[in-house]
From TrEMBL:
The active site is at E279 (proton donor). Residues 102-450 form the Glycoside hydrolase family 20 catalytic domain. One of its GO terms (molecular function) is beta-N-acetylhexosaminidase activity. Its EC number is 3.2.1.52. GO terms for cellular component: membrane. Residues 30-94 form the Beta-hexosaminidase bacterial type N-terminal domain. Residues 479-499 are annotated as: Disordered. This is beta-N-acetylhexosaminidase. One of its GO terms (biological process) is glycosaminoglycan metabolic process.
Length: 519
C-alpha cells in the first residue's frame, strides 16, 4: 500500500468492497484506544468502518481512507471526485509512534503576506498529512500582519513596504512594487476555527525584541531614539536579513508588548504563544544610555542578560493569562525564569535541542539543516533562488528529532518537531508549494513515526507510486522528482548557495555561547 505516512499495520484481504460515498463509512469512538489512534476495517461482510480513540483519531482515519481511494477522489469537482469506489478488503491499525505530540509547520506570512484563502488551503494540506500544529510567524522587520485596533499604525504603516528584495541580499536587487497586507481579528479567528475543524492548533508568533523594524517604523518611540541616527522615523525594512533596529526596554515599550500579547491571546485560544527572541542584535542597547541605565537598575552585566530579562517579563505576563511562551532557542541564553514557563524552538542545528532538554525546557526540534524548507532542494542551477545549503527530500527523511545521548527523562522534554517555511523567496502560494512539497511529505512520516524496517527508498516508492498523483489532484505545485521545470527558475532573483560545511561552521559559531552555558 502506497500510503504516507505509512500506517503501523496493514493486513490485506482477498475480496473487494464497493463504497458508494464517504457518507457510507461508519465511525465510532473507543476511548480505550490511543487518542490519535484509529482502525479501519474494509470488509465485504460489514462494509467500511473507522474506530478511533477520539474525534482526532477519526479525522486521521479519514485522511488514510482518502488515500485508499483513487487520486481523482481528492479533486474538488464532483464529476470526478464522486464514488462509487472499489476498495480491497483490509484492516489498518495506526497511531503515531514517534512520541511527538507537536507535529508542526511554521509558515512565515510576514516576509510575504499570504491571503486568508491560501492559508486555509495550506492548513488543508498539512492536516491531510496528519500534522497538528501551524506556527504562524506574523511579524518581522519586513512586515507586521496583525491589525491591532489600539495600535492602528502597526497595520497602516507596519503592514506595507515600498519594495521587496529580489533574491539573496548580497545582490542588492529590488522590484518596484509595494507589498503588504494585514489580517483582521476576524480573519485570524477564521483561520483558527478552520484549523480546529481539522485538528490543527494555530500558534501565533509576535517576534521581539529584534525583528521589530516594522513596528518601530509605525511607532518610532518604541525604538532606541537616544542612539545617534535612530531619532528620526524609519521605514519598514525592504531588504532581507536582520535589522539592527530593536525595541527599547522602557516601561512604556514593555506595556506595548503586553498589550499586543493580550490582543493575540484574545484572538488565539492556543495554550502556547510565540514571542520570538531570535537574532536580536545588541548594538543599539550598547549605545543607548537608557538601555544601559536599565541594566544597572536591574543589576545586569550584559545585553544578553537584558534580553533574557525582557523575555522573562513576557513569559511571566503570558503565564498570568494561563498561557505559555514559545521562543526560538536564543531565548535560553539569558533567561533565568522557570523552564516550565517557556517552550523552545531549537533551530540552530541539533545542539540546542540537547541543551534545552538537559536544562528542563520542553523543546520542539526544527534544526535548519534538516527542517528549513526555504533551503535549495538540489545543486541544479535552475532551482529558484537557491539559498542556504542543499536540503534534499532524503535529507528531510533522515531527520531524527530526538538527538542521541539524552537520558529517557531528558528525551521526554523533546515534545515535538516542525519544519519551517521562511518566505523571503516565496512570493506566492505556488512558490510555497514548490519549496514545501514533497519535502513536507517526508517530514510528516518522520513526525508520525517512520515504519520499522523500512527506509527512504520505500518512502520514495510510495511517493512516486501514488502520492504525487494525490498532490496533483489536490492542486499542489510540487517540485518534480526529476528537478525544476524551465518555468520554475527565477533568473531575476539570484540566490547564494552555501556548502554544508560552511553552514555547519556558522552554526557552531552561533551556538558557541549556548554550549558554554550548558557546561
Amino acid at each position: 500500500m502506497a500510503l504516507i505516512p505509512q500506517p503501523a499495520s496493514v493486513t490485506l484481504g482477498d475480496g473487494h468492497v464497493d463504497l458508494a460515498s464517504l457518507q457510507d463509512v461508519s465511525e465510532d469512538v473507543d476511548t480505550s484506544m490511543p487518542r490519535e489512534g484509529y482502525k479501519i476495517d474494509v470488509s465485504a461482510a460489514s462494509g467500511v468502518s473507522i474506530r478511533a480513540g477520539s474525534a482526532t483519531g477519526l479525522f486521521y482515519g479519514r485522511q488514510t481512507l482518502r488515500q485508499l481511494l483513487p487520486p481523482s477522489a481528492l479533486r474538488r469537482a464532483g464529476t470526478v471526485s464522486q464514488g462509487p469506489w472499489r476498495l480491497r478488503e483490509q484492516k489498518i491499525s495506526d497511531a503515531p509512534s514517534s512520541g511527538l505530540g507537536w507535529r508542526g509547520c511554521m509558515l512565515d506570512v510576514a516576509r510575504h503576506y499570504m491571503p486568508v484563502s491560501d492559508v486555509l488551503r495550506f492548513i488543508d494540506l498539512i492536516a491531510f498529512h496528519k500534522l497538528n500544529v501551524l506556527h504562524l510567524h506574523l511579524t518581522d522587520d519586513q512586515g507586521w500582519r496583525i491589525d491591532v485596533p489600539s495600535w492602528p499604525r502597526l497595520a497602516s504603516v507596519g503592514g506595507w513596504r515600498e519594495r521587496s528584495m529580489m533574491g539573496s541580499r548580497i545582490h542588492k536587487l529590488y522590484d518596484s512594487r509595494p507589498h503588504g497586507g494585514v489580517y483582521s481579528a476576524d480573519d485570524l479567528r477564521e483561520v483558527v476555527a478552520y484549523a480546529a475543524e481539522r485538528h490543527v492548533t494555530v500558534i501565533p508568533e509576535v517576534n521581539m525584541p529584534g525583528h521589530m523594524q516594522a513596528a518601530v517604523a509605525a511607532y518610532p518611540e518604541l525604538g532606541n531614539t537616544d542612539v545617534e541616527g535612530r531619532e528620526r522615523d524609519g521605514s519598514v525594512r525592504d531588504a532581507w536579513g536582520v535589522s539592527t533596529r530593536v525595541l527599547n526596554v522602557s516601561d512604556e515599550t514593555l506595556d506595548f508588548c503586553r498589550q499586543v500579547l493580550d490582543f493575540v491571546c484574545d484572538v488565539f485560544p492556543s495554550q502556547t504563544i510565540g514571542i520570538g527572541g531570535d537574532e536580536c542584535p545588541y548594538e543599539e542597547w550598547k549605545s543607548s544610555v537608557a538601555a544601559q541605565t536599565r541594566m544597572r537598575e536591574l543589576g545586569l552585566t550584559s545585553e544578553r542578560e537584558l534580553h533574557g530579562w525582557l523575555m522573562g517579563e513576557m513569559a511571566a505576563h503570558l503565564a498570568s493569562r494561563g498561557r505559555r511562551a514559545y521562543g526560538w532557542d536564543e531565548i535560553m541564553a539569558g533567561y533565568t525564569g522557570p523552564p516550565e514557563a517557556v517552550q523552545v524552538a531549537a533551530w540552530r542545528g541539533p545542539w540546542p535541542t540537547t541543551v534545552a532538554a538537559r536544562r528542563g525546557f520542553d523543546v520542539v526540534s526544527c534544526p535548519d539543516l534538516s527542517a528549513y524548507l526555504d533551503y535549495r532542494q538540489s545543486d541544479d542551477e535552475s532551482e529558484p533562488t537557491p539559498v542556504g545549503t542543499r536540503l534534499t527530500l532524503e535529507d528531510v527523511y533522515a531527520f531524527e528529532p530526538v538527538p542521541p545521548g539524552l537520558t529517557p527523562e531528558e528525551a521526554s522534554h523533546v515534545v515535538g518537531a516542525q519544519v519551517n517555511v521562511w518566505t523571503e523567496h516565496m512570493e506566492s502560494a505556488r512558490r510555497v508549494d514548490y519549496m514545501v512539497f514533497p519535502r513536507l511529505c517526508a517530514f510528516a512520516e518522520v513526525a508520525w513515526g517512520k515504519p520499522a524496517g523500512k527506509g527512504f527508498e520505500d518512502f520514495r516508492r510510495r511517493l512516486e507510486e501514488s502520492h504525487l498523483a494525490r498532490l496533483t489532484a489536490l492542486g499542489v505545485n510540487y517540485r518534480p522528482q526529476t528537478g525544476p521545470r524551465p518555468w520554475d527558475a527565477r533568473p531575476d532573483a539570484p540566490g547564494r548557495p552555501l556548502p554544508r560545511a560552511v553552514r555547519e561552521a556558522q552554526l557552531d559559531e552561533l551556538t558557541a555561547e549556548l554550549k558554554e552555558l550548558a557546561k
